[in-house]
Automatic annotation (TrEMBL):
The keyword Transport applies. GO terms for biological process: transmembrane transport. The keyword Transmembrane helix applies. Residues 120-350 form the ABC transmembrane type-1 domain. Keywords: Cell membrane, Membrane, Transmembrane, Transmembrane helix, Transport. This is ABC transporter permease. Its main location: membrane. Belongs to the binding-protein-dependent transport system permease family. It is a multi-pass membrane protein.
Length: 360
């Protein structure tokens, strides 16, 4: 005999089965929620620190002459909401931000979003190329040094990486520019492309990719040649960091029982390295790669200055030099988002590579 009511037991059982079937989905939802909260924190920190910058933003925006006029000054303050309490200013900023409005740059006179849409792809292009080159070289050198621990090969790799970590980035950039461009003439000058080359139609913002999509081989080769020196400088510095870390991680895995068991089964050296050693060391390597990539994206100002590369670092320097508060806040927000996205991707890859992470 039925009672006319549905037992909640099947519903609870179904929910338990769903949760059991989708641990990765639950893991990603948790990480996404954390990232949203951190993004709000980034906006608070960025807005607060930017408004604590010493100087007079009104004079920087209007110029000393116009800023001396009380009526002009008062009108500017009212139009920007600078006469409102700090909390109200932040809420106004967040309202504009949710509409995609980061304000107008005081240096270029354009919308900050327009400037960042040009600067960010320029930096991402060299950062991606540098991290790919660095990771490929570092995996080989770090694994080789670990396998040849204490031998000549290991000592040479450690010395080379130590030199790479010790040399200042700006000095390495200057020396590279002087040798390869001024002396040997085998590398092009500064900028993303030569003055005689027309920029490609914008698709991705990456000149090399956009030239390929447009079928322009001459433009692609020119953009790739201009990309070579900045990538070389950034890669040499990053290789030193990654190689030493990979060497340490591989050494720890080599001492594990499952690697010794794989060798005892008679597996080939290449298979042991790829299927056991590098896979076992992948999580710590992934962490340091994420940190290195974030540093490349947010800390290339010196390299960009030497090579006149119109990227995020150059834009940040110009904004800070001219007290361009909308530009400074835009750069700070972009850098914060970059690290949040990188950390989210690293967390995602953690969950894919190691089921224990997503089940935690």
């Amino acid at each position: 005999m039925t009672t006319g009511t549905t037992s909640p037991a099947p519903a609870r059982a179904g929910a338990r089965r769903y949760r059991a079937r989708s641990p990765l989905a639950r893991y990603l939802v948790r990480r996404a929620g954390t990232s949203v909260l951190l993004l709000v924190g980034v906006t608070i920190v960025t807005f607060t620190l930017t408004n604590l910058v010493p100087g007079d933003p009104v004079s920087a925006a209007l110029g000393e002459g116009a800023a001396q006029n009380p009526e002009t000054r008062e009108a500017f303050i009212r139009s920007r909401g600078l006469d409102q309490p700090f909390v109200v200013q932040y809420l106004l900023y967040m309202g504009n931000l949710l509409r995609g409005d980061l304000g107008t740059s005081l240096v270029t006179g354009r919308a900050v979003t327009t400037d960042l849409a040009t600067a960010v792809p320029a930096t991402v292009e060299i950062a991606i190329a540098a991290i790919v080159v660095s990771l490929a070289v570092s995996i080989v050198l770090g694994t080789l040094a670990a396998y040849r621990r204490g031998l000549v090969t290991d000592q040479v790799v450690r010395v080379v990486t130590l030199v790479g970590l010790s040399v200042p980035t700006f000095w390495l950039a200057l020396v590279s520019f002087y040798i390869f461009f001024l002396q040997l003439r085998i590398a092009p000058g500064s900028g993303r492309i030569s003055p005689s080359i027309t920029p490609p139609p914008r698709v991705t913002g990456f000149y090399t990719i956009d030239y390929l999509l447009n079928g322009d081989g001459v433009g692609f080769l020119d953009a790739a040649a201009h990309l070579a020196l900045p990538v070389l400088v950034l890669s040499l510095v990053t290789i030193g960091l990654l190689t030493r870390f990979i060497r340490t991680s591989v050494l720890e895995v080599l001492a594990s029982d499952y690697v010794r068991a794989a060798r005892a089964k008679g597996l080939s050296g290449a298979r042991v390295v790829l299927d056991y050693v590098l896979r076992g060391a992948s999580l710590p390597i992934l962490t340091v790669v994420g940190v290195a990539f974030g540093a490349l994206l947010s800390g290339t100002v010196l390299v960009e200055s030497v090579f006149s590369w119109p990227g995020l670092g150059t834009y940040a320097y110009n904004s800070a030099s001219n007290l361009d508060l909308p530009g400074i806040m835009g750069v700070g927000l972009v850098v914060g988002v970059i690290y949040l996205v990188i950390n989210f991707v690293v967390d995602l890859l953690y969950g894919v590579l190691d089921p224990r992470v997503r089940l935690a």
